[in-house]
Amino acid sequence: MAELGRLESAVMDVLWRAPEPVLVRDVLDAVTTDRVLAYTTVLTVLDNLHRKGWAVREKDGKAYRYRAAGTREEIIARTLRRVVETSTHPDLVLLHFARSASDRELHILRQVLDERESGK
């Protein structure tokens, strides 16, 4: 999650673990960091995550409840998609990625390509 800072990552971990949307106070109580956080700091982080598309919020009275905008894997895949789409040479990015992929990763890519070719 290189796109996120340490505190943003810690907050996202809370959102991914939460079984339902949470208030800022819930995140503040659950987040683990090496320093004491202010309510407004967590509020700002959640607002930034919402703006970046990592978190979704819904109004609950005067406050918002937050949840992750997808699973960890879905959001990371969207981030990879943005990296490829915003590159000036997406073909080279994909080539470098494919050349650096592990055997297991290549196996997964082959499976997906086979599925697409067979129309699944």
Tell me the helix content. Answer: 55-70%
CATH class of the largest domain: Mainly Alpha
Task: Enumerate the spans where pLDDT stays under 50 for 5 or more consecutive residues.
Answer: none
What percentage of the residues does DSSP assign to strands (E)?
A: 5-15%
- Number of helical elements: 6
Span of the ends, CA to CA:
30 Å
Task: Fill in the CATH topology of the largest domain.
Answer: Arc Repressor Mutant, subunit A
Mean pLDDT: 93
Total strands: 2
Keywords: DNA-binding, Transcription, Transcription regulation
Protein name: Penicillinase repressor
Family: Belongs to the BlaI transcriptional regulatory family.
Pfam family, one: Penicillinase_R
Keywords:
120 residues; mainly alpha; Arc Repressor Mutant, subunit A; 2 domains; two-stranded antiparallel ribbon; elongated
Describe the structure.
- The protein has 120 residues and is mainly α.
- The protein folds into 2 domains: 6-68, Arc Repressor Mutant, subunit A (Orthogonal Bundle); 88-120.
- The protein is built from 6 helices and 2 strands, in the order αααββααα.
- The chain has helices at 6-17, 24-30, 39-52, 72-86, 90-100, 103-117; strands spanning 55-60, 63-68.
- The protein has a two-stranded antiparallel sheet.
- A hairpin with a 2-residue loop joins β1 and β2 (63-68).
- α4 (72-86) packs across α5 (90-100).
- The two termini are 30 Å apart.
- The mean pLDDT is 93.
- It holds the Pfam family Penicillinase_R.
- InterPro entries: BlaI_family, WH-like_DNA-bd_sf, WH_DNA-bd_sf.
- It comes from Micromonospora chalcea.
- Keywords: DNA-binding, Transcription, Transcription regulation.
